Amino acid sequence: MAIENSIIVPAYHEKLNIRPLTTRVFAALGNEDSKKTEIIFVDDNSKDGSVEEVQTLQKEGYNVSIIVRTAERGLSSAVLRGFVESNGEYLVCMDADLQHPPESIPDFLKTLRNHPFVIGTRYAAGVGIDKDWPLYRRVISGGARLLALPLTSVSDPMSGYFGLHKKYLINAKQVDAQGFKIALELLAKLPLPKDQTVGEFPYSFGVRTEGESKLSSKVMIQYLAQLKDLYVYKFTWSTIIGFFLIFSILIMTFILELLKGYHASKN
Ligand SMILES: Nc1nc2c(ncn2[C@@H]2O[C@H](COP(=O)(O)OP(=O)(O)O[C@H]3O[C@H](CO)[C@@H](O)[C@H](O)[C@@H]3O)[C@@H](O)[C@H]2O)c(=O)[nH]1
Ligand SMILES: [Mg+2]
């Protein structure tokens, strides 16, 4: 049976998550849909036994493979590499660490049949972020989301859980593969059809139980550089300066209100 769905999983030091992710995704899909689906891990030479784990799963009959990159590093470029190597028309990107629920894949794929691009969102009724996700991560994520507001109307542009139809990747040459925020980059740059909406797929964001997050200060700086490039790509300089002024006024108002509250509590 021909492959229709390709699930691309960027992975760095994720050996312990490879088996649960694979078995849970295929269990959720059931027999028929499993035959039309492949999982491709894109690993950056972790050398932690990930390759052997995938080989064992292959022997057990799972349609799973692993690309090991030795000359390149980074989440976004890993995802793009997986997209290029995929066999399906319906592409999904999800994290290896089970923070994106494997059991949601069948419904995600259904939603992707009705939209050119679907973004998983943690900001919708009935879903959310695990209470154990650290406060500092919430603050960083909230700030990053605010800065992306001028670029897209989707509710969770920071999401690493998203999907699209392969045919829209034709112009992928312009896409900048630095950093973590590949969904935002694609949303801003791909020639998605104007008469169809971007789908939003609510899901609850879990916490990692195995391995560690790879978010670093370097990734955050890459995000700011990416934002600058996307602003320049989308807007004129006068609009960007306008945004900057409005943003500065908002921040100053916020600080003034905080100071007023502080003085009021002291008097
Ligand atoms: N190949 C490869 N994979 C990577 C790299 N860096 C991270 N990954 C993989 O990318 C996935 C997400 O990385 P995490 O380190 O778990 O990211 P996070 O801090 O949990 O951030 C997540 O939440 C953000 C929203 O707040 C998302 O924006 C982000 O994409 C990710 O889903 C994991 O499967 C991880 O192994 C890399 O350099 N190379
Ligand atoms: Mg994670």
Verbal overview:
Its EC number is 2.4.1.83. Its cofactor is Ca(2+); Mg(2+); Mn(2+). It comes from Wickerhamomyces mucosus. It catalyses: a di-trans,poly-cis-dolichyl phosphate + GDP-alpha-D-mannose = a di-trans,poly-cis-dolichyl beta-D-mannosyl phosphate + GDP. Helix 1 (15-35) packs parallel to helix 2. The chain has a 7-stranded mixed β-sheet with strand order 3-2-1-4-6-5-7, with helices on both faces. It has 8 helices and 7 strands; from the N terminus they run βαβαβαβαβαβαβαα. The chain is globular and about 70 Å long. It has a single domain, classed as Alpha-Beta Complex (Spore Coat Polysaccharide Biosynthesis Protein SpsA, Chain A), CATH 3.90.550. Helix 1 links the parallel strand 1 (5-11) and strand 2. It is of the alpha/beta class and 267 residues long. The chain has helices at residues 15-35, 50-59, 75-85, 105-113, 135-148, 182-189, 217-234, 237-266, and strands at 5-11, 37-43, 64-68, 90-93, 117-121, 162-165, 199-202. The longest helix has 30 residues, at 237-266. It binds guanosine-5'-diphosphate-alpha-D-mannose and magnesium ion.
